[in-house]
Amino acid sequence: MSGCCNHGDSLALLRERQRGTLHVVFAINAVMFFIIVAAAWAAHSSALLADSLDNFGDAFTYAISLYAVARGRRTKARVALLKGGLILLAAAVVAAQIVYRLFVPATPVFELMGAFSLVALAANATCLFLLMRHRDDDVNMNSVWECSRNDIVANLSVFAAAAAVWATGSAWPDLLVAGLLVLFLLRSALRVMARAGRELRQSA
User: Fold this and answer.
1) Which residue in 94, 62, 92 sits closest to 80, CA to CA?
2) How much is the pLDDT for 189?
3) Torsion of CA 9, 12, 18, 23, to 10 degrees
4) Residue 109 sits in which domain range?
5) CA angle 75, 129, 188 (to 5 degrees)
6) Per the CB 3.0–4.6 Å rule, which of 23, 68, 121, 192 could disulfide with 155?
7) Residues 36 and 58: beta-carbon distance below 8 Å
8) Which residues contact 64 (CB under 8 A, 6 or more apart)?
9) Alpha helices in the chain (DSSP H)
10) Using one digit for the tens of pLDDT, what is the confidence trace for 172-185?
């Protein structure tokens, strides 16, 4: 009986820690979405837009993850499936923006791209550090950690694109990196959804 009580206390403590972490990373990503989407618009950058949509998706992801923290295994798996769908949606929006820029070209402002990609990198590195200890807790927290890891890759890619735009004076590096981020997002979505699917089958 004592062992059961101790297990219950440990589980409650774990969930409380998860909630605390998710509240912090949600706030960071919600603020960063508005900052980066404004910078993307000002910089005419498809790659930076991809970065901002990633922040929006993450903020929504953290919000629904807070809902899932105290729920059962199947609910957490369903939430992870929803997260995978959101990542797919972000990829589709960026792909549409790339097509638009092919017909309405504009050379991005590389100074804004570079500066705000570093601001986003600092914010997302903080989130990744906070989530690191929870990545193996369950499918819900693992998918959250996966989203944050994507952000780091996206930030570094945007910074590289900014350097390439500066070196070439062309918009093509921005579009190329945005295209690569679309592929990266697709891969991440499939991984999250595959793991969630396994969880659903195992808990059936």
Assistant:
1) 62
2) 84
3) -130
4) 2-202
5) 50
6) 121
7) no
8) 79, 82, 83
9) 2-43, 46-68, 73-103, 110-131, 139-168, 172-202
10) 999 999 999 889 88
